[in-house]
Amino acid sequence: MNKIYHNLIAGEWIGTDASKNISPSDTNDVVGEYARASVDEVKMALAAARAAFPSWARSGILERNSVLKKTADEILARKDELGKLLAREEGKTLPEATGEVLRAAQIFDFFAGETLRLAGELVPSARPNIGVEITREPLGVIGIITPWNFPIAIPAWKIAPALAYGNTVVFKPADLVPGCAWAIVDILHRNGLPKGVLNLVMGRGSVVGQAMLDSPDLAGVTFTGSTATGRRVALSSIEHNRKFQLEMGGKNPMVVLDDADLSVAVEAAANSSFYSTGQRCTASSRLIVTEGIHNRFVSALTERLQSLTVDNALKEGTHIGPVVDEKQLKTDIDYIEIGKSEGAKLAFGGELVKRETPGFYLQPTLFTEATNQMRISREEIFGPVASVIRVRDYDEALAVANDTPFGLSAGIATTSLKHATHFKRNSEAGMVMVNLPTAGVDFHVPFGGRKASSFGPREQGRYANEFFTTVKTAYTLA
Description:
The chain contains 15 helices and 23 strands. By secondary structure, the chain is of the alpha/beta class. It has a seven-stranded mixed beta sheet, with helices on both faces. Strands 10-9-8-11-12-22 form a six-stranded mixed beta sheet, sandwiched between helices. It has a three-stranded mixed beta sheet with strand order 1-5-4, with helices on one face. The radius of gyration is 23 Å and the shape is globular.
C-alpha cells in the first residue's frame, strides 16, 4: 500500500479521504496517495491561520529569515529527488523539472533576504512639529491557490513572500500535482515554522477552493489558473471586501521579422511553443511571421520539430513529455480538429503517439495559413499547439500581436534595434522578450501581464510587497 500524505492543519498532519496521484508518463505509476480536505477541514485551517497571525506578524526578522533560508537550502540539497517527483507527477522533462526546483530554492533564498531589507519612510509633515512615519504591515490570512503546470515554482513565489512579510497562509495546490506541494510544506514545517502559520489543504477546487473563497477570514487571495476561475475569485473577493491577485491566461505572440537571425528565431519559437509540452501561461502559440522570411521559417521550424523526442519525462533524451492528463489531452485534440475545420493547414504533428509506458503523448503540432480571427488564434489551448500567421510587415505584425484579449508575454525576433525598441515600447504585454523565448523569466523581477491575463499587483521580486502588505501612515507630535 502507498503512504497517505496528509493535509497540514494547525501544525498537525490530518485527513482520511485520499486519492491517487498518477503519473502522466506512465499511468501505472502511482506517485502516492494524497489527502483531500473536507469543507470542515478548510474551516479548521482558516481558523488556525487566523489564530497564528498576531504572533507571526510580530515575529522577529531573523526568525522569518531562518525558516526561509533553511527551506531554500534543503530544496537545493534535494533538487534531484524533488526534480524526479515533479517530473513524475506533472510530466515535465527531468531537466526542466530539476530547473524548476532550483528556481524554487532561489525564490526562498531571495525572500529570506527580503526579511532583512524591510524598510519604511520618515517624512516631514506639512504642519510644524509633527513627524510622519510610513510603514508596511502584513495583510493577514492569505489564501493561495496554485495551478498544476509549475507545481513547485508557483507555490514558492506565493508562499515565500507571504511568510516573509508576516502573513499566515492557507494553501490549496492543484488537485493534479499534490506531491510537490506536500514536499514544500513539509520542508517549511520541519524547518521551524510555528503551528498554524502555514496550512495545506489539498483536494478539488469545487470543494476546497470554494470553501476558501466563501470564507470571510481571508484578508487576501492570490490565484494562478484559468480566466474563468479567476473571475470567480474576483467576484467572491469583492463580496468579502478582500484584496486579490490574479494570474490567468495568455495567447502570447512571437513576432518574426524578415531581418531576424533564422536560427535564433526558430529556437525561440520551438522553446516558446512546445517545451514543457506547451503547458505554460507564457507559451507562444501565435507565431506572427512577415512574408520575406515566412517560408524559410516554416521549413526550418518543421525540421526542428522533427528532431524533438516525445517520451517519458524521466527518460534521458526526452525533449517533450506527456500532456498532464487525459482531460487536457482531449482539449488539445479538440483544438487541433477546430484548427483544421477553420481552414488552417496542419503542417506538422497533431497525432497521438505510443511509447513503452502508457501515457498522454501528443506530437508537437504546427498550423500554417492561420488567421488571427480563428479560435486557435484567440483561445488559450495550453498544449503543444502553435499557429503561424503570415503578415506583410512590422506594422501589421505589431497590430496582430496586440489584437488579443490577453497581454501576458510577447516576443520578437529581429536584428533591427529600431524595431526591437519600438516593440518593447508598444507591445501590449506585461513582459517583452527580444530574440528570446516568451517563456522563461527571472525570480527577482516582477512577473505579470495586462488585460485578461492578470489583475492586481505584480508577483515576484521586491514588487511582491505590493500585494502581501498594507501601508500604514502614522503621525506623531514632536
